[in-house]
TrEMBL record:
This is ATP-dependent RNA helicase. RNA helicase. Its EC number is 3.6.4.13. Belongs to the DEAD box helicase family. It comes from the Eukaryota. SMART domains: DEXDc, HELICc. GO terms for molecular function: ATP binding; hydrolase activity; RNA binding; RNA helicase activity. Residues 195-416 form the Helicase ATP-binding domain.
Amino acid sequence: MVVVATSEAAPKREKTKAKQRYLKRKKERKKNRPKAVVSGAADDASESEDDAANEPETRPPDVKTTEKPPKKRRKVVGEEDEDVEMGEVAQVQNEQMETEALPSLPSFPLPSHPDAPSKSALALQGLDQALVGAELVDAAQLLPIPPDGEDDGGTGLSERMRKRLVDLGIVELFAVQTNLLPFLLPQDSRERALYRPYNPPRDVCVSAPTGSGKTLAYVLPILLSARVVTRLRALVVLPTRDLVAQVRETFEAVGKGRGLKIGTATGQHSFSHEQTQLIADKMAPLAGGSSRVDILICTPGRLIDHLTGTPNFSLQHLRFLVIDEADRLLAQSFQDWLAQVLAATRPPATSAATPSGFPNQHDAVAPSFRSLLPYRPTTDMLHRKQPSCQKLLFSATLTRDPGKLAALDLRDPKYFVVQGAKVSDGVLDVAMDKFSMPATLTVSAIVANLRYKPLTFVQERMVVCEPSLKPLVFFHIVLEHGVTNALVFTKSAESTERLVRLFEFFNMGVVARAYSSDLTAGERKTILEKFKAQEIQILICSDLISRGIDIHHVAHVVSYDVPVDMRKYVHRVGRTARAGRPGEAWTLVEEQEARYFKSMMKEADHLPRLKRLRVGDKELAGSKERYEDALQRLKESYTK
Ligand SMILES: Nc1ncnc2c1ncn2[C@@H]1O[C@H](COP(=O)(O)OP(=O)(O)OP(=O)(O)O)[C@@H](O)[C@H]1O
């Protein structure tokens, strides 16, 4: 379309050509604009182009406009208008062609992400292969102890030992014992030998619920292993002194009359006293070490003290290294205790580190250490031999942390996972920290030689309450729900002390005492004995005794302060409903903690097992006045 200059524009001669061109184009654009608005097609086209730009999959990436914009021609005077017109027409044509030329290609599939892996699939990733292939054991499986005159039923228990167990009231083996004994006490006597330098034993990891009898599962094989002369053959490491004392009692009771010497090292006695108890000869350096005990039960800190500071204290003869409450101990990096202990069970890499001194007899040195001796008394010394130490790890909340397991340098480990009360996913539960809980065993049925008992669950309840009323809610459940023979867990020694005082001022006629790290070892022992004798009905404590402690008559566990994690919850609750006895667990949850606590339980698939008990104003009204009075007296006792 030719555009003619307007008559008004002509006289204004001062306008430059460029200006004229600009105005002309402007007019052109104005003229064209209404056309574009009227023509819906143009709009549609531009829309569809926009859409196409936004959706690359509908527009093939290699579609290019074949038409090039017209070449810029040299401008000749008088030709500018035509030039502009041609350019613009060409552009419109191009646009039309472009929209017409777009082929209707099949659309590519939309980019999509693969489904996120499930939590369980993630939990199994990077897991120790030995754990993946763990042997799953039904917690309800029991094996009656074979009577005198019959064979051992594959248990490896001698007649004498069976008699001893029956005398102690143990007439059947629990699931963890039934499965572990044949593995640790094989029928082939060569595999039971103290030294197995050419065929060292496999290490063992056991995950079994609290109170399921793990202690006896390692005490029996240790007591039944061969012994000729006294050497340190078994080392049991536990996290606390109280547990050391408890495990010692089990060793002494079951091993009575066997002549095995048992020692403990916890720091409760002076270092030199312990040295005298443990070492026969401190003076002359002996390459084979010297020991007064066959079995040593200890805490890791004191063990390291003896490894570094007691002459002739040696772990070269160890046949069993037991790490009980393994997850807790592996979390302790104290002096890198584990690395030091493992190193002491192996011969040093160079003879420079050989134990100093000559052995009085060459067989006083463990086979794996003999190659380091400066002389070679027999040809048997030519072969490289392996240490015979078998590591046994136990916990109700076994670690699955590959890093921690690697630090143990396990030898072809065999895992046993004892499944607890709920329908379990076995290894997956261990992998996902869904720990098995104790069950209460009731009705029994006999299947072949094994007895299976149907499981009912330990009662678990939670009470959500106002923080200021928490002590009163606690007193209410003591009064109304008969909570005695109870362990009550608080978050600290200080809150233990405060709660005990308030409890006394509330005056319910129930004896409650504090049990915390603030007390001396002697005071703790006395209090524990009184509680066991039921002279004390409620023991209010910190988490000091939440692990491992075994007191038969504990019928209730109260988490007065919510546990910080699921492991703590499992171990606290595990102080009751042990060895098939019934038990009840209570958790007092402050309103602001309820969300966190419930999500913790949900994560561990445990929420459905918790029953909520409502204790409202109506229930508490009767005791409020007495409570106010007790609070007042508590306040006064602190201000005195
Ligand atoms: N076969 C058995 N028959 C009867 N009682 C048993 C048997 N085995 C163990 N017990 C008793 O069961 C109780 C719990 O055992 P133990 O302390 O070994 O549990 P645990 O599995 O180590 O628990 P935790 O994980 O809490 O330490 C103890 O009183 C123990 O004497």
